[in-house]
Amino acid sequence: MTVPNRRFAAHAATGLEEIPVVAGRYRLVTYVGCPWCRRVAIARRLLGLEDAISLSMAPKAGPDGFEFTSEKWDFDPDLQVRTTRELYRRQPDWQPGESTSVPVLVDEADPSVRGRIVARESGDLLFDLATAWRDLQAEDAPQLYPEGANAEDEDRAVADARSRDYQASDLPELAEKASQTELGMWFDQLLARPFGTVLHSDDEEAKREAQGKVVAALNALEQHLAEVSEQGPWLLGEKVSAWDVRVFAHLVSLAAWHSREAYSQALAKAPGEDEGARKAWAKQQAAKAPAPLSDWPHLNNYYQGLAADPRWLTDEEKQLLHL
Ligand SMILES: N[C@@H](CCC(=O)N[C@@H](CS)C(=O)NCC(=O)O)C(=O)O
């Protein structure tokens, strides 16, 4: 058995196992460093769904998954788990060896288990919050997907886009078409997943190849932003879209990685014996390092502008990510 990934009931036509859209029933579970989680967390804030969907954000990564530490507790007081893996182990349908990834959405109304995992794919959650949850969104919530977007068409388009092998040079044509699904898949294939390889792979060859993809994708995004900047501040010019949410969420992780690298390089060079003084020196040096996206000025501008808006990046997230 595997923990299911359900979709919201507004998608009746899909025939998928569905869950109802109800305010106050679900909790989004994230890890602060995870860019896939960040997509959903940003959408929740932008759409004004904070009161409708509660949040448990793990601030730390540990040996047993992401840890819910705080000044007061070393567990999550609502879910009553120490880590995200513990939450998975408590699920009746989870078996050892199966995925323990975040983000997840838990149903707190299910009496059989405190926090039953009902959804665990960031792309689906982003789409569902933006579409199926429309009635509960703030009145001035932005429209992240085009009017009339529905899960049935979306799932078909996602399956189709998944089977394609996008190149960085496809971006101008995809941007012209402005399909959220294809732009999202282009980004996942060329930047989001390769960036995961850069961070986590032990294979140097695979890492180098992934790094090349990330740089090519950043170059293509830079060129694109330079072209649309006359029309407005967003990736599609005038209007914010789900594409911005995906891209910004990963730019934050890129910036956090850059900041960690700058710090550890400085620490290796820090003079003296006193650990505290060496760390303080490294912190000062790292703060003087060039901005993470300084090679891509339009992208840097785009990132800095959104990072200053707490709906896109909260003060708590900035502090935890050393940004
Ligand atoms: N398919 C997932 C991928 C999410 C993902 O890769 N999450 C990572 C953190 S960034 C994770 O939870 N890794 C730990 C694990 O799988 O146990 C999604 O997009 O929702």
Describe this entry's structure for a reader.
The chain is α/β, with parallel strands linked by helices and 323 residues long. The protein has two domains: 7-136, Glutaredoxin (3-Layer(aba) Sandwich), CATH 3.40.30.10; 166-321, Glutathione S-transferase Yfyf (Class Pi), Chain A, domain 2 (Up-down Bundle), CATH 1.20.1050. 47% of the residues lie in helices and 9% in strands. It is built from eleven helices and eight strands. The protein has helices spanning 35-46, 84-89, 122-131, 151-162, 171-177, 180-200, 204-228, 242-269, 275-287, 297-307, 315-321; strands spanning 7-8, 18-19, 26-31, 53-58, 60-62, 65-67, 104-107, 116-119. The strands form three sheets. It has a four-stranded mixed β-sheet with strand order 4-3-7-8. A two-stranded parallel sheet has the order 1-2. The chain has a two-stranded antiparallel sheet with strand order 5-6. Helix 1 packs parallel to helix 3 and helix 8 crosses helix 9. The longest helix has 28 residues, at 242-269. The chain binds glutathione. Glutathione (GSH) binds at residues 31, 34, 36, 65, 99-103, 121-122.
Number of strands: 8
Question: In order across it, which strands form the biggest sheet?
Answer: 4-3-7-8
List all distinct small molecules, including ions and cofactors, that are bound in this structure: glutathione
Helix content: 40-55%
Q: Main sheet, how many strands, which sense, barrel?
A: 4 strands, mixed
Rg computed from alpha carbons, rounded to a whole number of angstroms? 20 Å
CATH top level of the largest domain is Mainly Alpha
- Rounded mean pLDDT is 93
Number of domains: 2
- Examine the coordinates and then state which fold CATH places here, giving the name of the CATH topology of the largest domain: Glutathione S-transferase Yfyf (Class Pi), Chain A, domain 2
SSE pattern, N- to C-terminal: EEEHEEEHEEHHHHHHHHH
Q: How much strand content do the residues show?
A: 5-15%
Q: Helix- and strand-based class?
A: alpha/beta
Task: Tell me the span between the first and last alpha carbons.
Answer: 40 Å
What low-confidence regions span 5 or more consecutive residues with pLDDT below 50?
Answer: none
The tally of helices reads: 11
The name of the CATH architecture of the largest domain is: Up-down Bundle
GO cellular component, one term: cytoplasm
Protein name: GST C-terminal domain-containing protein
Pfam families: GST_C_2, GST_N_2
InterPro entries: Glutathione-S-Trfase_C-like, Glutathione-S-Trfase_C_sf, Glutathione_S-Trfase_N, GST_Omega/GSH, Thioredoxin-like_sf
